[in-house]
Amino acid sequence: MFQLRSPARSPGYTLIEVMVGLAILGILLAVGIPNMTQWIVANKARAASEFYLEGLSMARRQAVVHNARSRFVLSAGANGQFDWQVDLCFPAPGTPCTDNTGNWSTTAAAATGDPEGAAGFRSVFRPAASLPPSDILAPAVSPDGAGTVYFTELGWVDTTIPGRLTLLRLDPSAALADEVRSAAVAITLAGMASKCDPAAAAPDSRACPP
């Protein structure tokens, strides 16, 4: 005797299963995307000090390598952070390398007097576009209004040029305060730039110099 069998279910998903899956996916995205965005911003904020350390270290290194004067210059960026540029200058009799005089390199041309001629060092410019905007990570310089550091051929800071930058501080907004600590970059007279903690106090080795 033959038995009737129900037809096999065709492969695929029912409309209800698809709708349930989409609902679960929507919940995961609603929870996950804001957290991921916050994580990315926090990571960028924590790494911001490295951006400025790179420029200061480059300026000192290029001065020593080329036996020249160098300078690290901050400028206002589009997002409220500071862009930076490193220039070189080769002193000549009667033409010292100061803030207002001297034949400094540019991003388009080497400095006059560069031993390598037109193929010599060209200024390096780095925009701060990859950093969080200033309403998320607020930059501040010390002394107020400072924005340059000049280096001698030995890599020391040129103290004869007034208004030199000694500290660059980065403070997170309230939204990131639980995830990102305030940080700073200090520049010593020896030309060494290093990270420090503006919230720490001496004798803590992490404290910023007075």
Automatic annotation (TrEMBL):
GO terms for cellular component: plasma membrane; type II protein secretion system complex. Gene3D superfamilies: Glycoprotein, Type 4 Pilin. SUPFAM superfamilies: Pili subunits. It comes from the Bacteria. The keyword Protein biosynthesis does not apply. Pfam families: N_methyl. Keywords: Membrane, Transmembrane, Transmembrane helix. One of its GO terms (biological process) is protein secretion by the type II secretion system. InterPro entries: N_methyl_site, Pilin-like. The keyword Metal-binding does not apply. The chain crosses the membrane at residues 12-33. This is Prepilin-type N-terminal cleavage/methylation domain-containing protein. It comes from Pseudoduganella umbonata. The lineage of its organism: Bacteria, Pseudomonadati, Pseudomonadota, Betaproteobacteria, Burkholderiales.
